C-alpha cells in the first residue's frame, strides 16, 4: 500500500505526504541521541572525580562503533524478514535491547561510578573499564539503529524531501543529546532525578516507543525496485566499489585530515574548565541556549546546503579555526572558580556563552552540510550502504584525533610536586591546541580548494559502474 495519497491529477508539494514520516524520523533520531548524551554526562562526572586524561581516553573508545559500523552495515542492509520489513527487522530488536539495557543496567552505573557521581566518604575510584564496556554496548546498538534509520529515511521520504533526512538527523540527535545531558543535569541540580532513575525512565520510553513503531508504522514496499535480491556478498562488493571510487577517496582524505584543526579546543575546553572548578551544572546550563539554536539552525542552514553544501564548509573553515584560538585564550584567562562557588562572573559567563554559541553553530553548519552532501551523492539503489559508508568515514575522521588529543594532554603537561601536592607548570592543553591550530591553517592553504573540486564533480563520479560490482550466485 502506498504511504502517500494525493488528489487525482495533482502532484504533492513541499512536505505534503511526508509529515508523519518526518515525525517518525525525528523520534528515532532523538532516541539515538540519548546514549550519546549520557556518555557526555559521564565525561563531566569523570572530570569532577579527577580521573586522568588517559582514563578518559579509554572511555572515549565507546564511540568507536559509529566509526566502524560499515563493517556490519551490509549485513543490516541484506538480511531481513520481508514480511516484517527491511529496516524494522533490525530497528525493533536493537531498540528493545537498548531499552532493556537501560532498564536493568541503570542500577549498575552507580556501582561502577564508585558510589555515586560526586566524591564522598564512601568514594572509590570509578571502574572505567566496566563503564566503557557498558557504554560501548550502548553505542554498538545505537550505531546499528543508525544504519537502519538512515536506510529507512532514503526510502521513507519523497525524493523532493530527501535533504530533510540530514535535518532530522541533526535536530533529532541534538535534541536527544540535550535531553540526556542538559536535561538530566537540570533535574539533578534540583534534586529531581539521579542517574539510575533517569536511565530507568528512558529504558521504559525506549521499550514503549519501539513497540508503537513496530505496530503502527509500516515500511514502503519498494524492495523490488532496489535491492530485494541483494546478497551479503554483493553488498560487501558494492561497499568495496564505493571505497575504490576516486571521488570517495578524495572525500575520505578530507574527512580524515581536516578536523584535527579544532578538535583540541572544541573537545577539551569545557573539560578543562570543570577541572579548574567550574561546576558541571553550570556547563550544562550553558548548553540550554545552544541546544535550542541547534534545533532551529539545521532548518535555517538547509537553504544553504540544498545545492552546494561543501562550499559552506569551505567558507567557514577559517572562522571555526579562529573560534578555536579564542577558546584557548578564554581558558588562559579563566577566573579562579574557588572564589565563585555558586555563580560565574558575569563577564566570563558572557564570554563563554558567546564561544559556545558560535562554536556550536559552526559545528551544526558543518554537520548539516556534510550530511546534505552525503544525501546528494549517495546512490539510492544501494540502500543504506552508501550513506552508512560516508557517515562512517566522517565519524572516524572525528574520533581518531579526539582520542589522540586525550591521550597526549597528560603526556605534554609538566608538574612540580612537593610530597602529595603538585602544581601544573605547563598544561598540555596549550601546546597541543597550538599544534592543531597551526596544522589547520597550513591544511586549509594547501587543501581548501578540494571542497570546491568535490562539489563540482558530476553525480556519475559518485556512482558505481556495473563492472565495479561483482555479482554472486
* Assembly type: single chain
- Hey, roughly how much beta strand do the residues contain? under 5%
User: Based on the structure given, which CATH architecture is correct?
Assistant: Up-down Bundle
Do you know the CATH topology? Growth Hormone, Chain: A
CATH class annotation: Mainly Alpha
| Residue windows where pLDDT falls under 50 for at least 5 positions | 1-6, 223-228, 466-473
What's the number of helices? Answer: 17
Can you describe this structure?
By secondary structure, this protein is mainly alpha-helical. The protein has one domain: Growth Hormone, Chain: A (Up-down Bundle), CATH 1.20.1250. Helix content is 68%, strand content 2%. The chain contains 17 helices and two strands. It has a two-stranded antiparallel ribbon with strand order 1-2. The longest helix is centred in the C-terminal third of the chain and has 32 residues. It starts with 18 loop residues before the first helix and ends in an 18-residue tail after the last helix. The N terminus and C terminus are likely disordered.
Short précis:
This protein is mainly alpha-helical and 473 residues long. Helix content is 68%, strand content 2%.
Please specify the SSE layout and strand pairing.
Elements: H1 19-48, H2 53-59, H3 64-68, H4 73-78, H5 88-112, H6 128-156, H7 164-189, H8 195-216, H9 232-244, H10 246-257, H11 260-275, H12 280-305, H13 309-332, H14 346-377, H15 384-409, E1 414-418, E2 421-426, H16 429-447, H17 450-455
Antiparallel strand pairs: 1-2
Amino acid at each position: 500500500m502506498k504511504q502517500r495519497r494525493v488528489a487525482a491529477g495533482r502532484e504533492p508539494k513541499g512536505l505534503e505526504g511526508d509529515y508523519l514520516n518526518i515525525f517518525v524520523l525525528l523520534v528515532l533520531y532523538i532516541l539515538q541521541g540519548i546514549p550519546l548524551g549520557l556518555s557526555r554526562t559521564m565525561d563531566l562526572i569523570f572530570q569532577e572525580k579527577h580521573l586522568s586524561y588517559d582514563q578518559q581516553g579509554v572511555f572515549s573508545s565507546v564511540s568507536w562503533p559509529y566509526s566502524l559500523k560499515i563493517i556490519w552495515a551490509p549485513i543490516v542492509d541484506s538480511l531481513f524478514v520481508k514480511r516484517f520489513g527491511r529496516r524494522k527487522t533490525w530497528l525493533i530488536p536493537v531498540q528493545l535491547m537498548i531499552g532493556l539495557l537501560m532498564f536493568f543496567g541503570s542500577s549498575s552505573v552507580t556501582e561502577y561510578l564508585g558510589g555515586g557521581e560526586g566524591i564522598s566518604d564512601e568514594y572509590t575510584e570509578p571502574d572505567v573499564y566496566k563503564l566503557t564496556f557498558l557504554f560501548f554496548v550502548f553505542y554498538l546498538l545505537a550505531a546499528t539503529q543508525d544504519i537502519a534509520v538512515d536506510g529507512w529515511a532514503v526510502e521513507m521520504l519523497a525524493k523532493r524531501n530527501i535533504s530533510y533526512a540530514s535535518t532530522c538527523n541533526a535536530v533529532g540527535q541534538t535534541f536527544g543529546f540535550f535531553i540526556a545531558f542538559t536535561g538530566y543535569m537540570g533535574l539533578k541540580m534540583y534534586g529531581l532525578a539521579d542517574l539510575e532513575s533517569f536511565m530507568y525512565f528512558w529504558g521504559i520510553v525506549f521499550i514503549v516507543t519501539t513497540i508503537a513503531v513496530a505496530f503502527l508504522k509500516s515500511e514502503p514496499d519498494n524492495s523490488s525496485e532496489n535491492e530485494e535480491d541483494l546478497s551479503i556478498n554483493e553488498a560487501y562488493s558494492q561497499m568495496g566499489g564505493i571505497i575504490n571510487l576516486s571521488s570517495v577517496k578524495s572525500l575520505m582524505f578530507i574527512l580524515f585530515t581536516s578536523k584535527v584543526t579544532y578538535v583540541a579546543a572544541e573537545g577539551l575546553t569545557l573539560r578543562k574548565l570543570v577541572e579548574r572548578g567550574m561546576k558541571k551544572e553550570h556547563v550544562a546550563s550553558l548548553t540550554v541556549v545552544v541546544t535550542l539554536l541547534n534545533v532551529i539552525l539545521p532548518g535555517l542552514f538547509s537553504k544553504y546546503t540544498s545545492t552546494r553544501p561543501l562550499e559552506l564548509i569551505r567558507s567557514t573553515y577559517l572562522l571555526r579555526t579562529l573560534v578555536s584560538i579564542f577558546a584557548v585564550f578564554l581558558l588562559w584567562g579563566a577566573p579562579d572558580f574557588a572564589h565563585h562557588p555558586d555563580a560565574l562572573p558575569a563577564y566570563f559567563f558572557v564570554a563563554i556563552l558567546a564561544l559556545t554559541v558560535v562554536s556550536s553553530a559552526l559545528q551544526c553548519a558543518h554537520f548539516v552540510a556534510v550530511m546534505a552532501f552525503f544525501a546528494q551523492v549517495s546512490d539510492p539503489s544501494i540502500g543504506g550502504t552508501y550513506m552508512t559508508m560516508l557517515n562512517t568515514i566522517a565519524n572516524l575522521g572525528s574520533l581518531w584525533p579526539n582520542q589522540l588529543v586525550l591521550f597526549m594532554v597528560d603526556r605534554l603537561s609538566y608538574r612540580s610536586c612537593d610530597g602529595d601536592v603538585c602544581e601544573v607548570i605547563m598544561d598540555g592543553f596549550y601546546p597541543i591546541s597550538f599544534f592543531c591550530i597551526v596544522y589547520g591553517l597550513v591544511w586549509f592553504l594547501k587543501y581548501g580548494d578540494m571542497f570546491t573540486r568535490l562539489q563540482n564533480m558530476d553525480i556519475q563520479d559518485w556512482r558505481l559502474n556495473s563492472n565495479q560490482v561483482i555479482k554472486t550466485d
